Amino acid sequence: MKNLFKLFQKSNYRNLFLATLTSQMGSVIGMTAFMFYLLDRFSEQPAYATITELMYSLPTLAVFFLVGVLADKMDRQKIAANCDWISSILSIVLLGAVYIGWMPLIFTILFVRSAISKFFGPAETSLVQGVLSKDEYASAAGLNQMTQSMFNLFGSAIGAIIYWNLGLFGAIILDAVTFAASALFIRACKISEDVRLPNGAHKFKELKVKAVLVDFKAGMTYILGHKLLLTLISGFFFFGIVNGGLSVMPAFILKYKLAPETYEQIMVMLSIVFGIGILVGSVVASIVANKLKLRLMLVIGLIVSGSFIATQALVSEIYALFILNAIVALFLPFINIAIGGWLPSIVNPKMMGRVQGWISPLMMLSHSTTLGIIALTFQKSLTIEALFWIVGGCLTVVGVFFALLLPRFDEEDPDQAGEDVPIKETKEIEYA
């Protein structure tokens, strides 16, 4: 805990941390309110709630080849700040679309805003890597996990309260404000040029299509040449399935099985319990990270979380759902902190954007596919019980897969090996 608070005293990291907090908190609140709005207004069409989730995830597949390259070639600080400013403006535009009430326009704006926000992650992650030392990565991952617990603890609850009292408009306005606040935090950072521009300065007009594609391919070559990194990233495909399912499963099991009349209120309580579990699990995992190997933490988190998610398929009482969710919440931070502390230490800073550029589309491909299948098959051929079996099974399978492969590759390719993996430069490309 002492290390966590020390880390937070660093002004650059503190501003980046607060930027992520405000940006994502607003998104969680807005998305929660939007889901309640759609379930209320279109209760006979649960596909709308799933389509909304798709509008947050599908854009990754449209811009995935650009986000990592831009984070490695352009000013990372400007990219992160501009993403927030544009997202704030689009939130205001979304207000008009909701007032008109035309769903295709609403979904289009959500799609575009989400596409812009996808450029934020790789740029912000690369900045964090640059302002911290390697022995601080695990502590930073712990703080990030605590941030996530804040989203789970307060985001859904605040989103529901704002929706009940101020309506969807209030939640969207809050979205716009938080995006703007995030941009101001990013602008307040004083980050050296070698962190903002690790590959030198480039102008946007210099990034021609051929150059972008070659840089994107260089990221793939780098990953393929790094067995440990490749093994870790392969698991992200299954994480996408899990994220896609978990984004709608709690609301669906409450509305369509356990509490059709009171699902909104119970969903708020469930999110609070889940958030408290994540917060406690984050503290425990942060302490454990200094005593256990990160690969062991990862495997434990995956297998335990997956087993208890699958068990929720058997639930017939609300209290049992609360207990199982609390257990899952305690062990999910083991996964996030292990990966968050491990990846930066094995990836060369010059390649972090392009590596992140491959992780996001891989996850979102499976995430979006999962949501698409749910939208088409839920309540027809796919039951809520089957959803929990599939999602829990995916986490457990990945845990076993990692348990078998990670020890061997970790010994062959120690933590610092990422810097020794050749980086394919793109000097053959004429940018001017």
What does this structure look like?
The protein is mainly α and 432 residues long. Helix content is 80%, strand content 0%. It is globular and about 55 Å long. The termini are far apart.
Write the layout of secondary structure elements.
Blueprint: H1 2-8, H2 11-41, H3 47-57, H4 60-73, H5 76-100, H6 103-117, H7 120-131, H8 137-188, H9 193-196, H10 209-224, H11 227-234, H12 236-246, H13 249-258, H14 263-288, H15 294-311, H16 318-346, H17 352-377, H18 384-412
Q: What key phrases describe this protein's structure?
A:
432 residues; Growth Hormone, Chain: A; single chain; disordered C terminus; 0% strand; 80% helix; mainly alpha
In short:
The protein has 432 residues and is mostly helical. Helices cover 80% and strands 0% of the residues.
Order of helices and strands: HHHHHHHHHHHHHHHHHH
Largest sheet: none
User: How many domains would you count in the coordinates?
Assistant: 1
CA-CA gap between termini: 49 Å
- Percent helix, as a range, is over 70%
Transmembrane segments: 16-39, 54-71, 92-112, 161-186, 228-254, 266-289, 296-315, 321-343, 355-374, 386-406
Biased composition (Basic and acidic residues): 421-432
Subcellular location: Cell membrane
Pfam family, one: MFS_1
